[in-house]
Amino acid sequence: MGIGYALECKTPFCRYSRLLVTGVGMRFSFVYQEVMEKARKGEVSEEHTQFLQDHPDGVINAKKNIYQCRDCGYYFSDYNLDMYIPKGDNADAPEKGRRSVAFPSEGMSYVSPFELKKRYKLYQTYPHHCPKCKGEVDVTEEVKDVSEKCPKCGKELKVSFILWD
Ligand SMILES: [Zn+2]
Ligand SMILES: [Zn+2]
Question: Which residues sit opposite 108 in a β-bridge?
Fold first, then answer.
């Protein structure tokens, strides 16, 4: 389960809303596979595709983060997308060729956030940028007030806390 925030416009008939979420949901194994698949196909970034070619046992962190732009204050959420490789110098390291744990009920394989922390080390962070102004961003867990106005009608946006699966 993850936490998040909904930014909503309260103007009647406008109904603009945007979700900002952080954490790992119940569907994480699917999300993980989707992110890895997209990265292999070159739909995430060139760096990620190259990374997986160079490190077939590498993994990408598919946890969601909330980011805030340092320049314009814009909030958005995205996958973490940092790149990890197995810890080689550790007795806990997975045997060669072992890429992930099987997800028992589904027969799928993925690397859980727990396993990522325990068995993998950070190889390269992925720098996110503001989708509005390309500015640098910080990870945040909390969204209080937004100065941003509704992009549809220009009125105030209201922030509410949410939990997601
Ligand atoms: Zn920005
Ligand atoms: Zn609006």
Answer: 103
Distance from residue 47's CA to the centre of ligand 1 (Å) = 23
Instruction: Specify the number of domains making up the chain.
Output: 1
Q: Exposed, middle or buried by CB within 10 Å (0-12, 13-18, 19+), for 126?
A: middle
Q: Which ligand is nearest to the CA of 152?
A: 2
* Local confidence pLDDT in tens for the 165 residues of the chain: 789 999 999 999 999 999 999 999 888 999 999 999 999 999 999 999 999 999 999 999 999 999 999 999 999 999 999 999 999 754 444 454 444 454 444 455 789 888 999 999 999 999 999 999 999 999 999 998 888 899 999 999 999 999 988
59 burial via Cβ count (<10 Å: 0-12, 13-18, 19+): buried
Give me ligand 1 centre to Cα 149, in Å.
Answer: 14
Q: Tell me how far the alpha carbon of residue 144 lies from the centroid of ligand 1, in angstroms.
A: 17
Ligand 2 mean position, distance from CA 121 (Å): 43
- Domain span at residue 137 reads 2-164
> Which ligand sits closest to the CA of 133?
1
CA of 74 from ligand 1 middle (Å) equals 5
